[in-house]
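All the exercises in this workshop are built on plain-text protein records. A record pairs a protein's sequence with a compact description of its fold. Read left to right, the backbone structure tokens trace the chain's path through space. Once this layout is familiar, the rest of the handout is easier to follow. Here is such a record, shown just as it appears in the course material:
>
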Amino acid sequence: MRTISTFLIVVDLIGTAAFALSGALVGVRRKLDLFGVLVLSFVAATAGGIARDVLIGAVPPEAIRNWRYIAVAFVAGVATFLWYPVINRLHDAVLVFDAAGLALFAVSGTEKALAYGLNPLMAALLGMLTGIGGGMVRDILSAQIPVVLHSDVYAIAGLAGAAVVVIGHTVHLPATATTLTGASLCFFLRLTAMRRHWRIPVAHLPGEAAKQ
């Protein structure tokens, strides 16, 4: 098993901060108290990584073993609670932070799965799970249908970023370059899909189209 690089840990922490901000912003918009905001901040930042680590046997999960992850999530939550107007001035703040977290977690999750010896296909799927897991739990706790279950291009963007990492690993390209490329592709796809309203086809019940 190869050692996970410092660069990968830094990417993981940046993704943690991005998802923590998205969770905290949702909590403030839902008018939760400080504890509720911190809960959403923590689960949005760590749920995907915890699920990944449990599945690959990296226990206890890094998110609860390494104090840095908890600290980053709580600092982001408290900062959003105290200075929400400042943070919320960013354009489409929740969606942008969510897209950043998706991209960074998808690539770091894939890298970690590869480091633990998983085959490329399963590593890419676990990378996608790492990216979408926190957002799903955040949305469920805030009484929303998870974004990944909508017709939005969300999980597919995460899978695309993970695929870049897997391909780079397979052909022995530099890990840093493939990680940055995969994260950039995922982030670009997610933001472009939101701007251009790209949608995945959804199922319709028989006769439903005729009623519309």
